[in-house]
Amino acid sequence: MPTPLRLGIAGLGTVGTGVVKIVQRHADLLESRCGRRVDIIAVSARTRDKDRGVRLGDYEWEDDPVALARRDDIDVFLELIGGSEGSAKAAVEAALESGKDVVTANKALLALHGQALAETAEANGKVIRFEAAVAGGIPVIKSLTESLAGNEIKRVIGVMNGTCNYILTRMQDASLPYEDVFDEALKLGFLEADPTLDVGGIDAGHKLALLASIAFGTQVNFADMEIEGIEQIRIEDIEQAADMGYRIKLLGVAQLTARGLEQRMSPCLVPATSPLGLLDGATNMVVLEGDSVGTISLRGAGAGEGPTASAVMGDVADLARGFRLPTFGQPAESLRAEQPASSATPAPFYLRMTLRDRPGALAKIATALGEAGISIDRMRQYSHSASDAPVLIVTHKAQRRDLSLAIEGMKATGVLVGDPVAIRIEDL
Ligand code: HSE
Q1: 113 partner at 20 to 30 Å CA-CA among 42, 272, 364, 390?
Q2: Which domains does the chain have, with CATH numbers?
Q3: Nearest Cα to 286, choosing from 119, 415, 112, 147?
Q4: Is 388 near ligand 1, meaning CB less than 6 Å away?
């Protein structure tokens, strides 16, 4: 009779209770698929006396997640607490050092401490699995580490924060300003306790840093990622981008270039009819480009109890079956400390500005662009009654730093009202 795989679960929030429900509901299914039982032995959470809608009476209780992690009667420690420091980090370290494998949904922890934790895991002959940390229920880590193992990965692109995609989609559909939709999302409970993690692009950036490490065999490096959130996106940009055939998405892009590792998380214009352009609401999508497979798109729920618990259980099932991979798909010591790219790959840019409507104003703007070596692809001036003219320009491919120089030049002309808005147009 095979021995059961014994779990200790720390964190009984949405994801933790979702995992308990799956283990209880699918005990027989898991046993048939894994060839052994998957049993929960002990759990831990901040508050014991709370109705979580699941039976917990059969499990041992630990107030302290570190004590749970060190128990001798568990094989796998499930860290579902969250946060890059504090008890989540201490408990994961304790679990690895006391000989447990770890399954976690904690993107922040791994984005900031992934290399050190992967080394600790390997030093102790253990593994860390984290499918649930990136894009919820979408099996993107399995795809990269297993199915695409025979590919050189060219590029990883993703919309990996459902809350931001919800906000941008809702702004477009209801013609509402950012502030109104942010308040709606807050009331709906979509935002993280610290909303900056979502709208500031940090949560999605953590996810991209993890994918980049696996895709390119590099040490996870969140610190050097270029990150911009969606807080500055105005309804005018969404509407005018739509008018030119684009949608605005909080887009993550990672690629290895001759200039180093490029990792960007920022609002971008994408063609409205592209798969990413058509991605509405809180859904996530990750696009992977491999030298043999070509381009594949994975789409699905990036958050929520069922999808995230589903991803956790996929990792648990692997461990129950005896399938073990190093944390980032290859031994931690073989991951390269790649230099961050000195500049992003050139791209066309969308530029929105307001000009004082007087003779020669537009010519001065065109000259500022020309002097920075930037060529105009398309230009549109909207009819207006006031003395100020709204103007849109789409450039040919340009370096961001040249565009910044052009914007400085534009400001010096004295024909601008306010600052121009510049948004990258991503080549998909
Ligand atoms: N807050 C995230 C999102 C889910 O909105 O996609 C957790 O990473």
Answers
A1: 42
A2: 5-133 (3.40.50.720), 140-301 (3.30.360.10), 349-425 (3.30.70.260)
A3: 147
A4: no
Quick one: average pLDDT of 176-204? 93
Mean pLDDT over residues 128-154, rounded?
97
Pocket test for ligand 1, best of 106, 109, 131, 203 (most atoms within 8 A of CB): 203
Mean of pLDDT over the chain: 95
Which of 236-250, 290-304, 374-388 has the least mean pLDDT? 374-388
Q: Which residue has the higher pLDDT, 20 or 380?
A: 20
**What pLDDT band is residue 192 in, cutting at 50, 70 and 90?**
confident
Nearest ligand 1 atom to the CA of 190 is: 5
Which atom from ligand 1 is nearest to the alpha carbon of 197? 1
Q: Give the residue whose CA is nearest to atom 4 of ligand 1.
A: 303
pLDDT at site 19: 98
pLDDT value at position 384?
A: 74
Is 397 catalytic? The answer is no
User: 């990750």: which residue's tokens?
Assistant: 286
Ligand 1 pocket member 203 (CB < 6 A): yes
Task: Give me the residues paired with residue 266 across strands.
Answer: 251
- CB-ligand 1 contact for 205 (6 Å cutoff): no
| Rounded Cα distance, 211 and 158, in Å | 10
CA of 333 to the centre of ligand 1 (A): 30
CA of 198 relative to ligand 1 center, distance in Å: 7
249 Cα: distance to centroid of ligand 1 (angstroms): 15
Q: Residues in the chain, how many?
A: 428
What pLDDT does 225 receive?
Answer: 96
- Predicted local confidence at residue 358, as pLDDT: 87
Compute CA distances 38 → 27, 101, 137, 245, 321, whole Å. Answer: 7, 14, 20, 50, 10
The secondary structure of 6-46 as a DSSP string is: EEEEE--SHHHHHHHHHHHHTHHHHHHHHSS-EEEEEEE-S
